[in-house]
Amino acid sequence: MVIHSEVFGLKLPLLDIPAGSVLRSALAGGLSCALSCSLLHPVDSFKTRVQASTMSFPEIIAQLPQIGARGLYRGSIPAILGQFSSTFLGTAARIPCEVLKQRLQAGLFDNVGEALVATWQQDGLKGFFRGTGATLCHEVPFYVAGMGLCAESKKGVQQLLGRELEAWKQ
């Protein structure tokens, strides 16, 4: 049975995703976030060196051969593991909340309690993970952009204040 949702007067089918694919989707999200983190880690390492140095940008560029790939990937394992695990675990909590939010936005239910009970009765646990693949396609680019924006925001605040932020404010 395909349940339809009406949004802006349009009847949209809600995709039915088997419960087994939820784990695969969360794993895929974690792996894609870990891959993007591993690909962008050298850029992050270079950015960190630029921020921490008193040298000019061209002087730091000239040091890249001495730093080498190993130096640019220093610290990558904890970063990659952290991105994988937070994405994987975050998916388990965020997607059910997103499903409930969308059902309420679409006007299918009047309140959260009603949405919870009806979702459980209609589809059981797998109903709370409907649309997992699409949600991950939406979320992963935002994780990557969010990491960059957070780092740039921190840098901007430090420049505005004219000093380094204390560790607890970062």
Plain-language structure description:
This protein has one domain. A two-stranded antiparallel sheet has the order 1-2. The protein contains five helices and two strands. Strand 1 (4-7) and strand 2 form a beta hairpin. 72% of the residues lie in helices and 5% in strands. It has helices at residues 19-52, 57-72, 76-105, 112-123, 132-161, and strands at 4-7, 10-13. The chain is elongated. By secondary structure, it is mainly alpha-helical. The termini are far apart. Helix 1 (19-52) packs across helix 2 (57-72).
What is the structure about, briefly put?
With 170 residues, the chain is mainly alpha-helical. Helix content is 72%, strand content 5%.
List keywords for this structure.
single chain, 170 residues, mainly alpha, 2 strands, disordered N terminus
The coarse silhouette is elongated
Residue ranges: pLDDT <50 for 5 or more in a row? 1-8
Largest beta sheet: what is the strand line-up? 1-2
- Give the topology string: H per helix, E per strand: EEHHHHH
Radius of gyration: 22 Å
Structural class by SSE content: mainly alpha
The separation of the N and C termini measures 49 Å
InterPro entries: MCP_dom_sf (IPR023395), MCP_transmembrane (IPR018108)
Solcar repeats: 74-156
Family: Belongs to the mitochondrial carrier (TC 2.A.29) family.
Subcellular location: Membrane
Task: Walk me through the topology.
Elements (H helix, E strand, L loop, with lengths): L3 E4 L2 E4 L5 H34 L4 H16 L3 H30 L6 H12 L8 H30 L9
Antiparallel strand pairs: 1-2
